[in-house]
Amino acid sequence: MLTKTLKTNADLMARRRAAIPRGVGQSHEVFIARAENAEIWDVEGKRYIDFAGGIAVLNTGHGRPEIKEAVKAQIDLFTHTCFQVLAYESYVELAERFNTLAPGDFAKKTLFLTTGAEAVENAIKIARSHTKRSAVIAFTSGYHGRTLLTLGLTGKVAPYKTGFGPFPGEIFHAQFPNETHGVSVDDSIASIESILKNDVEASRVAAIIVEPVQGEGGFNVAPTDFLQRVRALCDQHGILMIVDEIQTGAGRTGTWFAIEHSGVAPDMITMAKSMAGGYPISGVVGRAEVMDAPAAGGLGGTYAGSPLACAAALAVLDVFEKDNLLERSRSMGAHMVTRLEAMATKDKRIAAVRGLGAMVAFELCKDGDVHQPSAELAKALAAEATKRGLILLTCGTYGNVVRILVPLTASDAIVNEGLDIIEACLAATA
After folding, report:
1. What is the CA radius of gyration of the chain?
2. pLDDT digit string (tens) for 375-412?
3. According to the CATH classification, is domain 9-51+324-428 in 3.30.70.120?
4. Start-end ranges of CATH 3.40.640.10 in the chain?
5. Where in the chain is CATH 3.90.1150.10?
6. Are 84 and 113 a contacting pair, CB within 8 Å?
7. Where is the signal peptide (predicted)?
8. CB atoms within 10 A of CB 420
9. Half-sphere exposure of 396 (CA within 13 A, CB side)
């Protein structure tokens, strides 16, 4: 009688290294077997609490029943037509709902794509088409994707840009405000004005693109005053304001779009990640007259706005309303910040705790000196957490920030269990 050989993480990692390029990184040497809500079990049967959420993709948790049922129902009807060839109502309905959700007292239209980088690329295309201008201003520590254009926009070299240049021209980087590291809102606005004086005239700038909370950059929250002044500067010079909500959107910060906290209405918003509960879809929602600038056939993609992902995204919107997940995001985030700030009072290596809603992170340093970022400690803490059954991710320009992206559907008990593990890991790495 044959006995089925049990697979191990080590065996699968060996196969992975032999079959897959090293450029496809992996934060944890763990292979998942199954998952439910905010819990994961690997191929060896070990349980983990998921504080990564597939990098902000699972705000509604793993395996949400309503989302699975919506996708199963769509599979029984059809799986693909290419929307530009044969359309389907779910794409239209989803666009209508996002047109209503997006801030701004003006008519809007929405385009669906497949990945976050695609959304950003298309937003830039639309901005150039509408303004008949070419230049774009982005920000230091920003992250916008892995294609050559979006890498050009990204304000962090390692590991994203290393060895991949040259990048598209007429992209300029202003300073992003960061109180912890001494960059004020005035400094940031002055750096934009410096670009317009020294590098490119305002009449050639199509757009300024900004994250309301920088994701890969370290969960740096854009002050309301900063976003309002960027909006005013754009209005002054006829520049479009694009807000990248790929990581911040879908309720992560306590409003559907993080920009809502500021009262600012951008011209376009890019979105992806959690908007379909793990199914690949992205989008751009913006002013109708701006979105209509490209000629027919100028936008789209073979898999763009997949019917399976549209069904999932509609179900996600319903789940948010049913479970009041925006309020859950706010209360969960406040609780996590309180717990982490208590840890910071006892551990001087925590330089800062910050976030918006349930988009929360803490920054680690050496000897209590915020100017000595400790990527080594962040890496060690994440590794120790994995051993203890918690999946964490690091980020930040210097790799010294630990971020929390637990599903908004996680129970208080699960969240507290994860925070307890973080506290234990801080003690273990002291």
Report:
1. 22
2. 999 999 999 999 999 999 999 999 999 999 999 999 99
3. no
4. 67-323
5. 9-51+324-428
6. no
7. none
8. 14
9. 27
